[in-house]
Automatic annotation (TrEMBL):
Pfam families: OEP. It comes from Candidatus Nitronereus thalassa. It is found in: Cell outer membrane. InterPro entries: OMP_efflux (IPR003423), TolC-like (IPR051906). This is TolC family protein. Belongs to the outer membrane factor (OMF) (TC 1.B.17) family. Residues 386-420 form a coiled coil.
Amino acid sequence: MLTIVRIIIIGLLIGLSVTPVQAENPTRELSGKQPSSVLTLQEVLTKVEQGHPLLQSSQTQKTVAAGKVLKALGAFEPNLVNDWELERLVKDGKTVSVGFNDTFVEMRHPWGIKGFAGFRAGIGDVEIADLGIENSNQPLLGIVFPMLRGLMTNPARAELQKSNLADKQADLEIQQARQDLYLGAATQYWNWVAAGKFVEVQEKAVSVADARSAQTMKQADAGARAQFDGIEANQEVQRRRDLLIKARRKLEEEQYRLALFLWEGDNPVVPAQMMAPEFPPLESTLDSDQFKHDRQQAATARPEVRLVNLEAEFNHIDLDVAENNFLPDLTAEAQPTRKPGEFVLGLGYRFGVQLSFPFLQRGARGDQMQMEAKAQRLKLLQRYRMQQVALDVDNAQSAISRAQERIQVSQQALQLAQELEKGERTRFKLGATSLVFVNLRERHVVQAAEELITALADYQKALALYQWAIGGWANGPFAAEVNG
């Protein structure tokens, strides 16, 4: 099918060219240099991946995620503590100064268990009740064990669990940014290609009108044709030059817009010296089985859906903590006493069990209500995202089908316009028609060619939309086949 399209467009350009006169190249006008190479869509997407500021800014979320992990781990890192305490008291009828100097490492386990180990040096006339070393020193060993609330489920461990998901969240945010940028780049790329093709068509039309005007004026000066025909031919030249200027301006506008996706260092690059490629061949029609597979895959591949699922995981962790807060705070502990007055009386270690239970449980119930409401909201949002993704795929498939139909219709319209133009030229040579009708037929050919170019560009943009809809670009430009 594409071969036919190329033959039609080439035939149009040859049919319009009656002299070797060529219009000025718009790219040369923009850059002052002859275009040297063809810019492909793959190169554009690679430029986006390598240097687009928005994609690079989204990648900083990986650093943020690593920072969250470090912050969460900070709650469980060992702490070195040196505690020096001195107390004045009466002992055996005398006022004495006694105390201790403790040096120990304090540790906390994600399960909620706290412990420490170290060494205590007594100060003054002290007595050691347990594990005495040289009468005034002792090793320090202690543990605090939550038996209900906080055992294995606690806020500190919840933060650690959520921080471990932060890297996955960063990946999904990067994928979403990449998908959106690739879709924007591909859409703009094909707008640029179409604008370049419009300029080529208008250049050939101006070239034809210029040659005809020169020939008509020469004939009018020789008396072989009326001066009125020369004016008519010159008017058509000016009209087509006006359309060419508009086409060049449109090309420049699309170049600048495309430059926002082409970055080298800190600056966007305008592709003024790059040539637009030919439109790639039309792909085979997607069969129903492949379409169903892509539709199902999109529900698991699109970052939007996966981000909602991940947010639900965050909320589930918080909900577990909220439900755990309904349990009584029952804590068992065994550790050295930290009061110098008790220490010198010989109470070196103490053991205890503490029970705390909020009577109305308002705090726990409030947290639970919030988390359950958020879970319901995320459930509804997930349902919406799933339907949104399915409709995105359906919409992209519809765009592809309608674009294919438009290409077929535009091809037929262009063929008919060329036949009418050819016949009108024959009639003009025989004197059976006027220059006005020849110009009109040529305008119809140009219009039909532009409609075909638009249909081909819309088809490629529909393919890009389909790749975006199924999440085909989530992992980079090489994750899916790219036309152009």
